[in-house]
Amino acid sequence: MKPSVVLTPDAQLDLRGTPCPINFVRTKLRLEKMPLGDLLEVWLDPGEPIEQVPDSLTMAGYQVEQITDCTSYFSLLVRRPVASQ
Fold this sequence. Notes:
- By secondary structure, the protein is α+β, with helices and mostly antiparallel strands.
- It is built from two helices and four strands, in the order E-H-E-H-E-E.
- It has one domain (11-79): 2-Layer Sandwich (Translation Initiation Factor IF3).
- It has helices at residues 22-33, 48-59; strands spanning 11-14, 39-44, 63-69, 74-79.
- The termini are far apart.
């Protein structure tokens, strides 16, 4: 049986209670400050934030690695790509 890969974030950003599009802007600004290839964990509210932010990040060139439903919020793991966009 192959062990599952555990992704360990390099940084964390709690954006619960933050409306769209401010949560996307704050996520993008935080990612831009991180070293290339680093992984950021972002906590987002259900509804519009989790529906909009992952797609917006993907369109901006970031890699969404994982989305986890944590019942009252979602954990989004997004990586700053090594190749510049």
